[in-house]
Amino acid sequence: MPFAETYATEDPILQTARSLAHELGLPCVSPAAGSVLRLLAAAGNAKAVVEIGTGTGVSGIWLLRGMRPDGVLTTIDVEHEHQRIARRVFVEAGFAPSRTRIISGRSLDVLPRLADGAYDLIFVDADTTEFAACTEAALRLLRPGGVLVVNGVHAGGRITDPAARDVDTLTVRETVKTIRESEEWIAAVISAGAGLLTAVKQG
């Protein structure tokens, strides 16, 4: 196991959320990737964060622990049952219900309803089919200097394999390339967990 994964420690609340995700067959961010999310939220003094893909609340807890004490996490997921679990996990982690805005629905239906330039950080942990639309929406939703984080850009280790031509890998490659070549983003890939494409919106 990489040192970055063992360096990031998780308390019983996070361990419980993670085990619930495993029981449901849900992928969730690794401890190292979670610690990066917390770091980015703290570095940006984030008050307003959007998470696309609630799951059982693992990444949400990491984000909330890095955000300002008065910060609000808006988290979107199509699975209402998963969000019910996450809501309970957030409370058990010591966060007041007012710290989270949990929205059930498809991200592509919800994102257009969110306010322009109102967010400090957006974390995309969605199906690769939604990457393009989510990153496009992030450009509108983030304030200048706001941070976009897209999970899963290693594409299961296939991202650097030229023989890998499946739809998911091609979609990830296109997203990474688009962000890297855009003058509107300053981007880097952080090799924690499943790979985090991280980009700062230019002012």
TrEMBL record:
<dbReference type="InterPro" id="IPR029063">
    <property type="entry name" value="SAM-dependent_MTases_sf"/>
</dbReference>
<keyword id="KW-0489">Methyltransferase</keyword>
<dbReference type="InterPro" id="IPR002935">
    <property type="entry name" value="SAM_O-MeTrfase"/>
</dbReference>
<dbReference type="GO" id="GO:0032259">
    <property type="term" value="P:methylation"/>
</dbReference>
<protein>
    <submittedName>
        <fullName>Predicted O-methyltransferase YrrM</fullName>
    </submittedName>
</protein>
<keyword id="KW-0949">S-adenosyl-L-methionine</keyword>
<dbReference type="InterPro" id="IPR050362">
    <property type="entry name" value="Cation-dep_OMT"/>
</dbReference>
<dbReference type="GO" id="GO:0008171">
    <property type="term" value="F:O-methyltransferase activity"/>
</dbReference>
<dbReference type="Pfam" id="PF01596">
    <property type="entry name" value="Methyltransf_3"/>
</dbReference>
<keyword id="KW-0808">Transferase</keyword>
<dbReference type="GO" id="GO:0008757">
    <property type="term" value="F:S-adenosylmethionine-dependent methyltransferase activity"/>
</dbReference>
